[in-house]
């Protein structure tokens, strides 16, 4: 027998690398889902034959839930560690514990007998740097000593963070949510969710938060959870080999990230659904629910806040609110929307400046300058000196009679009612007003630097300060004018009618909503975060108002704006396509361009195919019956084609440059002296999506969005005319919006 008729058919024996993608490419959702369906069908059919196969099928069905369990455990453990470490390092800037330097301020004074109720945080075991170095805690010299130590530690932490990011994992900077949104929409960024990114992001997140910069750990925790999921996906072939299945796990991981960041499992699931996910089937909903539950449970067992509560800012007050208070709540909503729109504009302008000018060449210098500026300005004001989370919980807090906080510096009254403001409160309000201006300005230049930085805490802090100021103002108004017709019905003298802490809560939600444009998930996160179930309606009113106001200035939230700034190929599912163009206007080749590069199903040699692939940079080629008829057969990906030809030259006897490349089912008869043909039917996609040249563009865009396509062929009277890729659509949309179409980077 001759060997010349032995064909390697890739269908029976898939080559390593066929069906995978290059870096910075878009996945083909349809192809991935088909692959998974075939795999599933094969396992189900085999499971009827033997017990071993049945067990394999059961373990395959169970693997998704097992993976979710692991993701939840790992993310919960990491988040707990990050919380504890950040708390300890933040306190390190102010002093050190003598009984063991690994205790933070609170734990150091827990065991002490010398603490009084008035000064809970003063105990001999905890010494500020001035006491340690100069022996006294009073006087100007001690103050300057503490000030300098604060700046020194802040700069050290920031320097370590930015150096580690630069040296080991450049992808660990920023918040990570814009990139995760892009990855979930089907884009591939190799290494973005890798183990180095995870390790460095975890360490540098602690350092960045502790350095006192105006940033939070919430956004980066989503990135950390997604890294955990991506690394754990490698344990299961089902997820390792299928990009679409992996995206489902990452959607659930985004929910886990918010769940551990705020202790809000349901809010996390809704956040993933509303804000980051592109494709979110019901199965993913259940899985993310389960994963968020496991993660929240793990975090609760670690108990990082030491109060056996999961939530960050638990509020004790449950005072009812009155209908008339909706007016100030809506005012806060308007403030949040205006601040959100302003922040997005300013931050994007600053980031664009960083990209285009020489500022971008000195990331370490930039971080150090911003940290020094933040530390120098922040230290004198006690509200900016404390960490963002501490500030927010202070602002959410309601004043009891025994509270020693400055915000509770009312004139002493024996009953718990609305009280007149005293000296302490006026000082506090001044400091808060200055803190508000400082936070607004410094957050703009901080977000987007080369350290891990979240946006949730700073924007909530801005809103909480504004809310608290308005709340105290309302309270004083009601105290001094309780006979106005506005207050008459519900605010009798001596009653506690206005809760400033509630205003701070509403303001925080409004500002966060204005920046990110979340609605449902935000309200759920807010009431899970504070435990304030009575306040759902005020939160809803403020969030909705802030979204409307911010949308009036620009339709996109901060994450979409950053996606566009970086030029990622992201088809925004919320954006409408209003232009009345047809596919023939958008497709390539244009009228002046050379003809479309196609392969024929038979008649081309290996050399010709290789020459065509080498001379173009397209990621795939349509296959037609013949150059004359241009009738469409299928579509073949460049990567698969190159791998198959390369492999055939190594493995299959007799395949040389002159061999015919055949895409038909039956090999045509070839002359006895001719080399054997190379059959590539196995890598041919026989069901490519096609639209006609007169399909309106908005329908085509919808097809791309809903099915997650990567390219679509255009036909006219059944003949192949051109091709539309996701990139063409994005460029076209950029042109309509008068933006630079070349800002979209990748294919």
UniProtKB/TrEMBL annotation:
<dbReference type="GO" id="GO:0005247">
    <property type="term" value="F:voltage-gated chloride channel activity"/>
</dbReference>
<keyword id="KW-0129">CBS domain</keyword>
<dbReference type="GO" id="GO:0005769">
    <property type="term" value="C:early endosome"/>
</dbReference>
<feature type="transmembrane region" description="Helical">
    <location>
        <begin position="189"/>
        <end position="209"/>
    </location>
</feature>
<dbReference type="InterPro" id="IPR046342">
    <property type="entry name" value="CBS_dom_sf"/>
</dbReference>
<dbReference type="GO" id="GO:0005794">
    <property type="term" value="C:Golgi apparatus"/>
</dbReference>
<keyword id="KW-0406">Ion transport</keyword>
<dbReference type="GO" id="GO:0010008">
    <property type="term" value="C:endosome membrane"/>
</dbReference>
<feature type="transmembrane region" description="Helical">
    <location>
        <begin position="428"/>
        <end position="449"/>
    </location>
</feature>
<keyword id="KW-0967">Endosome</keyword>
<dbReference type="Pfam" id="PF00654">
    <property type="entry name" value="Voltage_CLC"/>
</dbReference>
<dbReference type="Pfam" id="PF00571">
    <property type="entry name" value="CBS"/>
</dbReference>
<feature type="transmembrane region" description="Helical">
    <location>
        <begin position="502"/>
        <end position="527"/>
    </location>
</feature>
<feature type="transmembrane region" description="Helical">
    <location>
        <begin position="360"/>
        <end position="379"/>
    </location>
</feature>
<dbReference type="GO" id="GO:0005886">
    <property type="term" value="C:plasma membrane"/>
</dbReference>
<feature type="transmembrane region" description="Helical">
    <location>
        <begin position="461"/>
        <end position="482"/>
    </location>
</feature>
<feature type="transmembrane region" description="Helical">
    <location>
        <begin position="249"/>
        <end position="273"/>
    </location>
</feature>
<keyword id="KW-0812">Transmembrane</keyword>
<dbReference type="InterPro" id="IPR000644">
    <property type="entry name" value="CBS_dom"/>
</dbReference>
<keyword id="KW-0868">Chloride</keyword>
<protein>
    <recommendedName>
        <fullName>Chloride channel protein</fullName>
    </recommendedName>
</protein>
<feature type="transmembrane region" description="Helical">
    <location>
        <begin position="326"/>
        <end position="348"/>
    </location>
</feature>
<feature type="transmembrane region" description="Helical">
    <location>
        <begin position="65"/>
        <end position="86"/>
    </location>
</feature>
<comment type="similarity">
    <text>Belongs to the chloride channel (TC 2.A.49) family.</text>
</comment>
<feature type="domain" description="CBS">
    <location>
        <begin position="587"/>
        <end position="651"/>
    </location>
</feature>
<keyword id="KW-0472">Membrane</keyword>
<dbReference type="InterPro" id="IPR014743">
    <property type="entry name" value="Cl-channel_core"/>
</dbReference>
<dbReference type="InterPro" id="IPR001807">
    <property type="entry name" value="ClC"/>
</dbReference>
<feature type="transmembrane region" description="Helical">
    <location>
        <begin position="221"/>
        <end position="237"/>
    </location>
</feature>
<keyword id="KW-0813">Transport</keyword>
<dbReference type="GO" id="GO:0008021">
    <property type="term" value="C:synaptic vesicle"/>
</dbReference>
<feature type="domain" description="CBS">
    <location>
        <begin position="683"/>
        <end position="741"/>
    </location>
</feature>
<feature type="transmembrane region" description="Helical">
    <location>
        <begin position="147"/>
        <end position="169"/>
    </location>
</feature>
<keyword id="KW-1133">Transmembrane helix</keyword>
